[in-house]
Structure formats: structure tokens, C-alpha cells
Amino acid sequence: MAKKCFDDEIYRNAKSWPFEEARRLLSRNSINEKGYALFETGYGPSGLPHIGTFGEVARTTYVRHAFECLTGVKTKLYAFSDDMDGLRKVPENIPHRDMVEKYLGYPLSRIPDPFGCHESFGEHNNSKLREFLDSFNFAYEFQSSTDWYRSGKFNDVLENVLVHHKEILEIMLASLREERAATYSPFLPISPKTGRVLQVNIDEYLVDAGTVVFKDEDGTITEQPITDGHCKLQWKVDWAARWAALDVDYEMAGKDLIDSVRLSSEICKVLGKTPPEGFNYELFLDEDGKKISKSKGNGLSLDQWLRYAPTESLANFMFASPRSAKKLYFEVIPRQVDDYATHLRNFKVQESSKQVDNPVWHISVGNPPDPELDISYSLLLNLVGVCNTDDKNVLWGFIKRYSSGADPESMPLLDRLVQHAINYYQDFIKSKKFYGIPTINEKESFGDLLNELDKLDGSESIEQIQSIVFEVGKRHGFQDLKSWFSSLYRHLLGQNDGPRMGSFIALYGVSNTKKLLQEALDRN
Questions:
Q1: Which residue among 79, 215, 257, 476 has the highest number of C-beta atoms inside a 10 angstrom radius?
Q2: How many CB atoms lie within 10 A of CB 194?
Q3: What ranges in 300-391 are assigned the alpha helix state H?
Q4: Strand duo 187-189 + 231-233: pairing
Q5: Beta bridge partner(s), residue 222
Q6: For the chain, what is the total number of helices (H) and then of strands (E)?
Q7: Top-level CATH class of 8-175+234-281?
């Protein structure tokens, strides 16, 4: 389907947060000077890309697309890898950890690849980043810190840092503890003897010579150029220098980096450039409301999410309220799948002025797919449960009977959802199934519902079936109809909650539902 175009006025009046962010770029002179707007995301290649990496690139892409629609100005997105950083600790999830441990302090791009498939550990993880971003069809240009330092592309900004090192030190030292401040320098020399990135005091800054003087690891007083990869910058200074050298217009960061953004912005101004626009997004919380930590393992990984739900649902999760803290755990997945499907259905019937604020318009970069069959994820989970199968073909048998034109080929998203639902049911629901013993009143109501279903001829709509279930509950004194439906979920499905019963009966079939009711009646 061709990308839908809207009137300029619709874009100007759009209220969704990516448009609000994009409007902040409209007054930047640097965009007019370059002829394009530069967006950036950073990546630390000491580990593999993760769910936070996806979130940052996805959210930046939403703002980038909104800016293009607002202005018609070209944009670029740089995915910048800090592969010149020295390795601080050995990751636990790699082979040959003993070998890598020997290279602590070395630039990631100079450490042998423990996986044995690339020239360096940094290059290995960089390739994983590119594979990762490509798998989600993100549009970006990869940039390597090592390349920018060693090729000389950072030389001008490095010389500028040297010229202004006193002002930069004044900014940074005020933010550091006394012990750290005693040896702090904007420059980290690369030892000419060991190749390690050195956290050492700089004895002299020789601006005219373009060098720094320091004590090497063996105690030798060494004078070394700051250019061509002989030194790198401390990371807050490095961030600021990168903004200045690349002329970055927009970069967002997590809330935990608020102080870092402030300091880097001050340094960027000292270097004569305007810091990029951007905002600090909130961090993810676990089920108990605690900050997610990779070392604690209390979060949800990207691979785990994609085992139970499609990428679109994760993108929907990332789109919603980026400035609000959100819990990231397994139970949020079904809701995000169904929310995405609801947004997709709504998009087709919305006015154009509403479509540009619909999450699916941003997620699909202005080109949302057509909605497929209206079967919720929770309904699929219940279908898997009552069928007690991991065979997709069995489930598709029910779906095809529910909708005669349905098939996996014409509904690829639904086909993926079926497998996701099987995975989720097997891993989280199956072991928790528990069928209680119905009370006398529950048995009477189940018998009544069974009789009502006997009267159906197959022509009834979902709403008509739902109304029948509703009326039976009221007839048997379930004034709180929530308790009536909970009773059905508990005794028919073995769980405390579930889908709309009208939709479930239509999908699972009246005759099969009658069997479930009879099983509940026979249970003693």
C-alpha cells in the first residue's frame, strides 16, 4: 500500500508526542546549514543489543518521521557505536572469558573476538547491532567511534577540546568527587606500549604542539598527540565532542542520564556548537515497581518478548507515554498485542486528522497494514487452553470455522499470533490451571446456559450470544455480573479471568462450549 499523504495543516495540528518533539527542531539553524536534520542514537558494544536499544531507536525514528512530514527536510539517523571505549569488565554471556579478561582496559575494537568470527570483540558486537536494527527494518547509518578517531575525522574537535580544556575541566570537576577529580582529564591517552586506554592524570596540555604529557603504565613520562586515535575522550566530553563534530540535532537519553546530558550540553557550547534537542525518557520497572537491572536479571529481554508477541506490540509499548515509568514484565504482553490491534482497526475509520496521532501510523512510518480478523490475543490464549494443543493447524481449524475466509497465508500477523499464544500458554498459563467445584447456584446457572445454547441454530451473532450469557447470569441472582463471568472463567477455562464469552463461544463453537458446561456440571 502506498504511503498516505496528508495536508500540511494536518501535520501542523498533530498532537502526538513525536510531532511535539519534531516541532522543537524547527528553529535550529544547523539544519538549514547542513540541508538535513541529523538524529543520533548511541550504543555501547561491550554487550549485545537489548530491549532498551530497540526502544531508543524506535522512538527516535518516530520523531524523525514526524519531522520529515512537518518540514519536507531530509533527515539522517546515525547509530553510533562507542567501540573505542576501554573494556571495564568481562561480560558473563561470552565464551573464552579468561582470554578476554587479559584485555581489560583495551579499546573494544582492539580486543580479539571471543566468538572467533570477527577481527575484534567490538566489531562482533557492532555486527550484532546492525543485524538487530536491520531485522526491524530501521533506516539508519552505522558509525564507529574507532573509525572517527583513527581516521582523523575527530581531529578538529579534539584540537578544540585541547584549546578549551581549562573551561571543560571547570565544568567537569565541579561534578566529581574529590578523589576522582584529582586525576580527571578530558583526554584518555592510549598507551603506546600496552595499547590500553589510560585513566591517568595529564601533567601538561601542550596546545600549540597538539599533545599531552602523562605518565605511562611503566612510569615513563610520555608526550603523545591527541589526534589520529592516540587519545580518546572521557565519555561526557566524548558525547559533547561527538555532538559538535557531527552537528547532531536530536538525541534522546534515559532519565538516569539527565546530569550527563546537562554537563555534555555545557561542554558542547564551550566547543562553539548548539547541543541537540531531545528528552529524557523514563526507565522501565519490574513487576514490583523496582528499576530493571541487567545485572539483577529482573527485566524482560527482547528475545523473550518476541517469543510471545510480534514486534508491533513491542513498538506499541515503546510509543505509549515515553516520559512515564512503565512496568516491563510478561503480563503486560497480551494487553499490548490487543492495544496494537485496536489502534489498527481504529485507524481505518478515523479522520485524517486523527490518523497522524494514532500509534500505528508512527509505528509503520506512515504506512499501517490492513487490520486482520478481529480475534484478541486473550481469546487466542483461551482457545489454546481449551484445545490443550501446541498444533497451529488445530487452532486454525477453529478460526476458519469462525470466519470462512480466514487462512494463514492471507493473515500472516494472526498466524504469528497463534504461535505466540501457544508459547505464552505453555510457559505461563498451563501450570496454573485449576478447575473448582461449582456451587449449587453455579450448577443451576450452568444448566440454564446449556439449555439456552441448545436453542441456537448457528445464525446468532457474537452480540446475541453475549446477551444470552448476560441474561442467564442475571436470572440466577448474579447481581454483580463480574462474579458471573468469573464463575464461567473459573469452571470452564480454569482461570480467574478471560475473554468476552460471546466471542469465545463463537470461536470455540457452541457444541464444544456445551461440553465444557457439562464437564463443569459433572465435576464433584
A1: 79
A2: 13
A3: 302-308, 311-319, 333-349, 352-355, 359-363, 377-387
A4: antiparallel
A5: 214
A6: 25, 12
A7: alpha beta
Q: Which of 342, 340, 346 is nearest to 364 (CA)?
A: 340
Please say if the pLDDT value at position 297 is more than 60: no
Q: How many CA atoms does the CB half-sphere of 128 hold within 13 Å? A: 21
pLDDT above 90 for 302: no
For residue 241 the three cell numbers come to 565532542
Task: Let me know: does 110 contact 232? Beta carbons within 8 Å.
Answer: no
If phi over 0 gives left and psi between -120 and 50 gives alpha, with beta otherwise, what is residue 35? left
Domain map of the chain by residue range?
A: 8-175+234-281, 377-432, 440-522
pLDDT at 291 over 80: no
Interatomic CA distance for residues 80 and 246, integer angstroms? 11
Span 73-120, pLDDT tens digits: 999 999 999 999 999 999 888 999 999 999 999 999 999 999 999 999
How large is the angle between the packed helices 392-402 and 501-508, nearest 10 degrees? 110
According to DSSP, residue 40 is labeled: E
* Identity at 160, one-letter amino acid code: N
- Separation of alpha carbons 500 and 238, rounded Å: 55
List Cβ neighbours of 519 (8 Å cut-off, separation of 6 or more): none
Residue 246: burial class (beta carbons within 10 Å; 0-12, 13-18, 19+): buried
Task: Name the strands in the sheet holding 202-206, side by side, starting at the edge strand that comes first in the sequence.
Answer: 202-206, 211-215, 221-225
**CA dihedral over 102, 107, 113, 119, signed as positive or negative:** negative
pTM to 2 decimal places = 0.90
State the CATH architecture for 440-522: Orthogonal Bundle (1.10)
